[in-house]
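Quick bug: Methyltransferase domain-containing protein output formatted oddly.
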Amino acid sequence: MKMTNDPVGAAIQDFMAGNLEASIVVESNLTEDDEIRVAYLFRTPDGMPELELLALEACRGRVLDVGAGAGCHSLVLQERGADVTALDLSAGAVQAMQAQGVRQVVQQDIFKLSGERYDTLLLLMNGIGIAGDLEGLERFLEHAKTLLNPGGQILLESSDILYMFEEEDGSVLLDLNAGYYGEVMYNMRYKEHQTGEFRWLFIDPAILEDYATDHGYTFGQVYEGEFGNYLARLVLQPA
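Here's what came back:
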């Protein structure tokens, strides 16, 4: 199967074929180009940060692993006996997960997913970024209600990136006409593949709590990291 515009999937396939040094180039409007080593997408629990281990422990019931990538979190949950479905839009990632033995894999856009109900939606590696912007966050929170069983939860990782706008004197320089500072433009490249520009959301916990409460969820912060990253639990309240 020939993949086009699937840098993550193509890189994952190359890694599985033996290119252990494969890296995905990440361009943004905020920082210099960065790289994601594909090997990291295949990490085992020994290589997972504390935040991810806590998130996996907190999963309950039917789990939807959103943006599952190479499937490392789904595999851990599956090995623990969880009823987990791995969801990703990348054809290459889906093929890789199936090849590794992830039993339930769906290639789909989360916003187009319907017809199934889960007890946990899991969004790691800044997974809530798929919302794109604050308007998209509202859309996601409403759509998630159609995917969650009563009392279901969203476990999500995000980051407050305000520190990236700090000056040397400790002041913060923001362009108030540019919208919310956590809305970042990205492009991902691997060989001839690239996503094209897309918007990715980093949401600070105080604003996330406001949005979650407005849309019928309770908010809890499970973990806070050293660099603004955190794990939140949103629990859907009865209508």
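Actually, after a second look the formatting is fine. The first helix runs from residue 7 to 16. Closing.
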